[in-house]
Every structure is written in structure tokens, then in C-alpha cells.
Amino acid sequence: xxxxEMLEKYSTDEKCREILTKLRWPEGVTCPRCKERKVxxxxxRKQFExxxxxxxxxxxxxxxxxxxxxPLEKWFAATYLLxxxxxxxxxxQIQRTLGxxxxxxxxxxxxxxxxxxxxxxxxxxxxxxMDETYVGGRAPKGQGYTGRHxxxxxxxxxxxxxxxxxxxxxxxxxxxxxxQFIRENVSGDVDVxxxxxxxxxxxxxxxxxxxxxxxETINHSGGVYVMGDIHTNTVESAFSLLxxxxxxxxxxxxxxxxxxxxxxxxxxxxRRKNPDLFTDTLRHMITAPVLTFxxxxx
Length: 298
Ligand SMILES: [Zn+2]
What we know:
Elements: H1 3-9, H2 13-24, E1 39-42, E2 47-50, E3 56-57, H3 72-84, H4 91-98, H5 102-115, E4 127-135, E5 153-160, E6 165-170, H6 175-185, E7 192-196, H7 200-207, E8 215-218, H8 233-248, H9 258-270, H10 277-287, H11 293-297
Parallel strand pairs: 4-7, 7-8
Antiparallel strand pairs: 1-2, 2-3, 4-5, 5-6
Helix pairs in contact: 3-5, 3-10, 4-5, 5-10, 6-7
The protein binds zinc ion (ZN).
């Protein structure tokens, strides 16, 4: 959907509520308390009243939009901008574009981002690439260290060829840590997992339940990057997009918020060919659990 088309389609509060109602209750409005389907609409209050338990609620009740003072049109515009920005968009940019305060913009971005995660993740299979990268921070001055020896944040990437990308913030690159990501994301009957020759991987595979015969390594330390089909180029291309996002757009991402940025990145990446990304994001927002400001800033 083009920007003008979106602005036209969702130009009023009523139009925004209408699509949100359809996305939240595709089978018809249902009382959040008692699941009653018989409700009446109180037009002046923009609320529904349950015929069974008399609970009054709006389409926004119990969602990330709850208690918002910001017009829904602005929520929609911000969501659109976040969906369109391949490398992410900063709260500053949203602040300027929508003419709202920085604090509002920051909170808005985080609420939208919180909805950009997958609740039920299927196990990945087929051909999988796994690698780790380092973002944020700087190497300690005067020490020519890079990668595994710096104070940067560690990101583990798992990508199924022709399939999904997942990225996680990891506390270290020990085999036990990597093994946990494998167990939680990779099916035991995966065809092959491809990694570089970093020493943690063979132990991680063993602990993660992946048979030795299904682990292929590419000898990066020996300067080899592609051996026929054995390479980690597709997960690395996702890392480079992440780095351009972190360096160019978010400037510095605190370790606390890094997992949310990674979810946002993967959410958008995995839907890059989906023409309904915007509507899909709205659906996640209207059905995702509430994120309170207290929880965000704790
Ligand atoms: Zn009810």
C-alpha cells in the first residue's frame, strides 16, 4: 500500500476503529470478559456493552492502544513508517514526521515494536545457517581486538534457506548458550546446519541434539567462505542489514532494548515479500498483550 492510499483509507478515527474491530474480532465483536457475542454499540462513547455481563469496552481495551491520547491516525502513520523502513526508523524521525513529542514518539515506537514478535514459533528445518555477530559499543581503545574479544553485544542469527530468519541477543558464545537456541528453534530432523569453524559449534550441536553428520562447517579462519552449497552468506546478509540499521538509524541500542529491535527486524524481514505487512502488523498490535510504560522503563 502506498503512503497516500494509507492516509486516505485511514483518515479518521472511525475508519481506524473499523479496521481494528475487523482484525481483533474477525468472527464478530466478542466480550473480552465473558466471551458473549451479543453486544450493543454505544455510538457517542465509541464503546460496546456486553448483553450478558454489562461490561463496557472499546476495540482498544486491553491492547497496546489502551489509554492512548494520541489520535489513531497517528498510530497508523507511525506503524506504516515502521513497516516501510527496511533498516528501521528512529524515534527522532517519527517525532519530526508526525509532529509529536520525543517521549510520545519513543513510547509509540516501542509499543508497535512490542507487537512485532511471533508468539508461536515453529521449529525450523531443511537447510539452516547459523552464525553470530557483534553490534553496538566500541572495541576497547588501543586494543586491536575485534569480534569475539570486544565488549559489544552478541547477536545469534539462525536462518532457514528460503525460510525464516531469527535473531537473538546472547549473553555469551559458549556452547551451552548456543545449544539452547538450537533446541528452541531447530527441529531434530533438520537436513543440515551450516556454521563457521568456531570451536563452540560442535559441542553446541551435540548438546542441542543435532547429529554430528548433520553439521557442516565452513573454514572461515582458513579464508574459505563458500564451498558449493556450504556457506553462511544468507544469514550474514541479514546481519549486514541489522548493522546498517543499528549504526545508521538507531545510533546506539541499549542492551535492554536490543531483543525488541531484533524482533522488529526479523518480523519485517520475514514479511518483506508480503504485500499485507501493514495490515498484518495492525493485527498483531490489536491482539498482542499490553506493554505498560512502567515495564518499558523499569
Ligand atoms: Zn460480557
